[in-house]
Amino acid sequence: MSRVFFGMNNRPIGFFDSGIGGLSIWKAVNAMLPNESTIYLADSKNAPYGEKPIEKIKHFSFKNVDLLLKHEAKLIVVACNTATTNAIEDLRSHYNIPFIGIEPATKPAAISTVTGKIGILATQGTFASELFLNTSKAFRGSVEIIETAGTGLVQIVESGSLEDARPLLEKYLNPMVEAGVDNIVLGCTHYPFLTPIIKSIVPNNIAIIDSGDAVARRTRHIIESYDLASITPPEHNFYTNGKLEVLKAFAAQLKGSSSPITSTALDF
């Protein structure tokens, strides 16, 4: 593949999400590409995107991309299921830069199920998107898909008080367990932060599936295909228009190397 982004190698990988949830994706990408610099935008002020009209979701997505490009991002990971399923095609049409999206891992869950029943916990905005409907349509004839909108979970993760999510998780997950699912897909990047609580609620034979590793592999493929690998020491910059202390707390948990990292409040 031709080197169409020549000279962009040492620029950072950009990420954005409607808050801190996309840090779960950042963690997977950073683990696979530890030598790459990153810049992350947490649009916590407008979280959750999953409860917004489509035009609002697109507006926020374009705003975030413009800011990442001002910081010279060489490619952008849309670390938000709702933004991916509702806006990524418009972003790809408008900007001359690689975009990597994320959507619920319906396919691997459907392929690996033994009971023929899977659960998907996502936002209403993701469930209503054309991309999700098209992706899941291929499996609806052979697999029973139990969809549940995780209303209120994003706000709890954004608050940093994760244990407060337990009553809602029990409400959302127990019907899936009773229905006999053997895979539960976490269709929002905020939800992996709740995995320890989820595992304490559901039986051990139920697999919890998210999209972090798949996105990391795709990001590595793009880096290699376009010859964009960085050759300078990495650094990581996190920005939020929400509570800086919450971002710092989550970022501190995710950091796996000694590379410089900063967390900054920013009005965007």
Write the layout of secondary structure elements.
Layout: E1 13-17, H1 23-32, E2 38-42, H2 54-70, E3 75-78, H3 81-94, E4 99-100, H4 106-112, E5 117-122, H5 124-127, H6 130-137, E6 144-149, H7 153-159, H8 166-179, E7 183-187, H9 195-201, E8 207-209, H10 212-225, E9 236-240, H11 244-254, E10 261-265
Parallel strand pairs: 1-2, 1-3, 2-9, 3-4, 5-6, 5-7, 7-8, 9-10
Helix pairs in contact: 1-10, 2-3
Describe this structure as you would to a colleague.
With about 270 residues, the protein is an alpha/beta fold. The chain has two domains: about 140 residues, Rossmann fold (3-Layer(aba) Sandwich); about 100 residues, Rossmann fold, CATH 3.40.50. The chain is built from eleven helices and ten strands. Helix 1 links the parallel strand 1 and strand 2. It is globular. The two termini are about 35 Å apart.
Quick recap:
This protein is α/β, with parallel strands linked by helices and 268 residues long.
